[in-house]
Amino acid sequence: MARFGATAVAVVALAIAPAAWSLTSLTADWSLAGTAIAAGVEASRYDVLPVTGVHPYSTALQRWHSSGQRDVPQDAGEIHVAATDYSAISDAAAFVKAGFGSLDWGGSTGWVEYEVQVDTPGLYCLRIDYTPKDDGIADIERAIRVDGSFPFEEARRLILDRRWRNERYPFDRDEFNNEIRARQEQVFQRESKLLDDANGRHSEPFRWYFDAGRHTIRIEGLRSGVILHRISLVAPPVISPYVAPGDLDVSHASGWMVSIEAENPSSKSHSSVMAAAGGDPIVSPREDGVTLYNTLSWKKGGEWAEWSFEVPRDGYYQIGFRFRQNIKQGMPAHRTILIDGKVPFEEFMAYPFRYDYEWQSSWVTNSEGRPCLVWLSAGRHVIRLVADNSPMRPTLDAIVNVITDLRDLSLTIKMATGGTVDRYRDWDLEQQIPDAESRLRSSARRLRDEYDRLLQLAGHTPDSAAPLLVCAAQLDDLADRMDLLPLRYRQLSLDGGSVAEVLGNAMIALQEEPLQIDQVYIADPEAQLPPARSSLLTRLWVTISNFIRSFGRDYDAVGKGDEDALTIWVGRGRDYVSLMQQLTDRDFTPRTGIRVAFSVMPREDQLILANSAGEPPDLATGVYFPTPVTLASRNALVDLTTFDDYEEVVSRFHPGALVSYQYLGGVYALPETQNFWVLFYRRDIIEALEIRLPDTWDDVVSILPLLQQRGMNFYIPVSAGTGVKSIVVTAPFILQEGAELYQNGGLRSGLSTPEALRGFRRMVELYTTYSIDQFVAVVFQNLRSGDIPIGVSDYLTYTQLKAAAPELEGLWGIAPMPGVVREDGQVARWAPGASHAAIMFRASERQEQAWEWLKWWTSAETQATYGNEVEALFGPGYRWNTANLEAIAQIPWTEEELRAIRDQWKWLKDIPQVPGGYMLERELSFAWNRAVIGTASGIQNPRQALEEADRNISRELLRKQLEFGLVDEQGNPLRRLELPLITEPWDVGQEDVR
After folding, report:
1. How many CA atoms lie within 13 A of 707 on its CB side?
2. What's this model's pTM, rounded to 2 decimal places?
3. Radius of gyration from C-alpha coordinates of the chain
């Protein structure tokens, strides 16, 4: 049996089932993981990366210390290598020597190696001098190997920070006199960084052990270009405890203080460190009745902001803040404080900003509550605050370990019982799983220990950690009744609301370090802090004033409309619409002189009502994909092909993305966002089972026995609901067989063809023959729990995994969905992707102006800017899935994700919209129900079910065609729908639409 690292052991545990098979059945040598092909599945380009068993940094550092390794002394000297003095390189064409020892690494992939001679063995810090190469928002990510291997897990992803700032300050104002957030501009300058944890889980930079001799350092590209200048090995910084200055002379102190407005830092690490509105009257600056972005807010570990300031003389100074931390309930947020690039005292590492609903003012103090005085020379200095999640790291590690063990235990019980829930049957778990009770007790005890540690850290009840106690009590309750565990084991990790799910949600709160800062103070030792809170009378007056103003406010309006302004309704939340208004006011209006007023559109049926009343907007965006043809068929929309530069504009999109917006030869919408259907997989479980990712549906069938005998399954989105199956989840099976959804130019259903029957039969047999689950409530939860480790899903699942499953970071991936092998050998992966679109109303008197805005809005520059600002404000869970093919590359997807999405989009073919087309969705769903679930008269075979669906669809299509004047009473065509036909995969520059 191969030797496993800690990670690999946890992975294998997920699939253990002692009654059915043994651990030795996983013949996995982790150095060659993924080389075996399960059940005859052929290899794919999207092979799973091997599990390495590399230890986390904390474990590696502990081992180095245990073996006697220590930091090299400060006088050991530094080891420098110019970036151009590499010993090996992956591709000479990808690297350019830029002069002065600099190496221009324009791409995001490849590698470069350096050799260093180490004379003094010990622990070093690794410093890289660099300049960002491009102006993208994505992090500059690199990995580092030492002598051919990663010394610790975190070395797989290291961040070289960019530097950002507000383009202007004070901020501009909109028509309501509200402030508009400034555009974030990147500052390009030479940076020098000691490599540290990308998520702020460690306060100090990483240590790297080098013994005496020659070593190889390989830097591997992961994302974004960079210009490397120098690589250095340096002694780790020495940070001492604070010692109050003796005989402090304060005779010169005059109460001098400088107050820095936090919302305008001199620079920051990410554009997501954003100015935020603080509504309390105490916050500076203040202006009643309008929105001011007068504070700075950020929460992700590792992100930082810094401010420059000047002091009038040499001496000791206090540092203070007016801040609010009212999100991480009952617990402090932490920041490491640096002055001129260095941490002055130990107390400044992971400094706690305590929880309180109200605003607070505080000096930075020592353990005795006395201000820490920092010596500063006269002149300019820089103070930096770095979000530090290191106090939470032990708890987060413990939660991950508990979740892993509970998933292992639940799957083990599922295998031991065959997944049978029978309250009249007894199970001898003590024999089959003798350590089940001890594992439950141990997990509960560990959660309570972590809660107690956080209680001591916070100094009072840590409400954000309360789920740890709730889960511990639930585990003890399960352990108290082991005889009922076979009936209740799904509470561990499989059910919604399970212990694993609750703990995973708790991780989201615990791994964030939210802090909102109003002002930064630098002051003489005797200076007094400004008040932290406004008076009760002031707050009462502001509340009453705002209440009175609320009666005259239009809460749907985001921009101030008048007779000359272009009106746009948006079917998204107010935050999205506000950002659209700001971006338009900041860029489009100054460029064109066209004023635009946005309004929130709560429901799409408002468009129909407004058009019927003769008062529609000029444009509407965020419109769901079936709506444009519904309105166009009633002569409500403008045919966009009538504009002279239509062909130039439409080249921004995949031709398949326009299918849903075409009617009678016209195009009545431009795609705004685009969905994707891809294969999601749990990298850890798939590797443990040595499964190659399936490339075809036949491959899926081949791996199903391997999954199902271990209590797992495969997911297809047809299982997502018990009612009508959406056409976007059933259509791929029809399209991939070479069938079309409609025949005769869109006048007849396409389900009567042999190709459609093959696709429908395949979809049905996945359930009736191969036992895929008929109903899966939320596949995200099943991917999270591990009982469905692989399956097809869409953009929504991606955002859920990114935002709500922190414990799975690095443990899941995506690849193109399975398909059907064509005669030419290609795998056809046809699938829809339509999401939301922008439309223009015929009643508009500003059609040329509206077209100018549409061109600007759908451009690559605007879509990339908007998408990046949305993600900066709200996080990766709100990633903008733009339909612009150029802009998608500027959104911070990983290379692996972007490659999978693009490969899938080659096969994009959306659903044509025709009068009566709703019946296709309905009847195809009913046919599935008749063939899989059955009716009172029994289960139909696929052919009978599909023929009945085809007849019903054809009747409804004919009825609507008569209504819209498309055919005469005898059914003869009077007008052609002219549906586009897409038969080949499409790449940029390739024309496949006929």
Report:
1. 29
2. 0.83
3. 31
